[in-house]
UniProtKB/TrEMBL annotation:
Belongs to the HIBADH-related family. NCBIfam families: HIBADH. SUPFAM superfamilies: 6-phosphogluconate dehydrogenase C-terminal domain-like, NAD(P)-binding Rossmann-fold domains. It comes from Zwartia hollandica. Residues 165-291 form the 3-hydroxyisobutyrate dehydrogenase-like NAD-binding domain. GO terms for biological process: branched-chain amino acid catabolic process. GO terms for molecular function: 3-hydroxyisobutyrate dehydrogenase activity; NAD binding; NADP binding. It catalyses: 3-hydroxy-2-methylpropanoate + NAD(+) = 2-methyl-3-oxopropanoate + NADH + H(+). This is 3-hydroxyisobutyrate dehydrogenase. The keyword Oxidoreductase applies.
Amino acid sequence: MTRVAFIGLGNMGAPMALNLIKGGFSLKVFDLVAESVAQLVAGGASAAKSASDAVIDADVVITMLPASKHVEGVYLGAEGLLTKIPSKALIIDCSTIAADSARKVARAASERGLAMIDAPVSGGTGGAIAGTLTFIVGGEATDLARARPLLEKMGKNIFHAGAAGAGQVAKIANNMLLGIAMAGTAEALALGVANGLDPKVLSEIIAKSSGRNWAIELYNPWPGVMENVPSSKGYAGGFGVDLMLKDLGLAAEAAVSTQSVIALGELARNLFAMHSAQGSGKLDFSSIVNLIKRD
Ligand code: NAD
């Protein structure tokens, strides 16, 4: 049986790991938060004492960590995982990080003879729970072929974007658009409500009209419009404001390095930065509606 080390059991990593267990894989898991490890052990995983302990004997190592610094911190350096992972293992990093960072870690892995792909995901916590994520992969096609049996247990769509780092570039472009779309959706709903409309009725109209988008259809930011989304649970869980802010920052970095125009992406970044500065960094990103709507 394929032995999988899974590191990073947060809002996304925990349900992804559970789907691998349901899919018949043997998992050894680690997170800095002990309760997150305990939750996975209750679901059938075995607990590792550390990230290094998790990867001993692993055939596949999966990481789902917050940002570039965490991924580089875990893999690189004298005590990094690249010095501990068995030589035939495949590394799959599903975190959303800077493309340069992904290339740096993949290069270091390759220098040690280890195969690595970047495989950031789209689809939110709902997609992670349902096993319907979209994987956006950068790396060698042969390594993606090895990863496929695992990715298929966690996701529905698997794209090969190109060489190492390409998955991250595509993911960042997607998330910049998501940040813009969520802020725009919040603005449209706030405008309608301020002018006397029922947010549910307006959402139904937009969902069948030309303003239709993922936020209005599947992740509505207005409280009470949709069940089982963060806006109806006090904006708990989901995709944090600070994670969206990180992704918009990555888009800005990529734009600077290529002199690209991202006027709306920069505006969205500023809106999320303002929202975070007001104390909402840990809330789901759809809470941006609170920055916009009138009380
Ligand atoms: P999260 O903050 O809920 O989880 C991250 C987990 O990593 C935490 O449990 C944390 O304790 C753990 N961690 C941090 N450093 C660690 C280390 N050194 N060793 C072990 N564990 C460590 O974040 P999330 O929402 O699960 O997102 C993870 C990644 O997926 C991010 O890059 C995010 O941008 C991306 N993403 C998130 C969503 C979403 O909807 N939440 C959607 C798509 C992509």
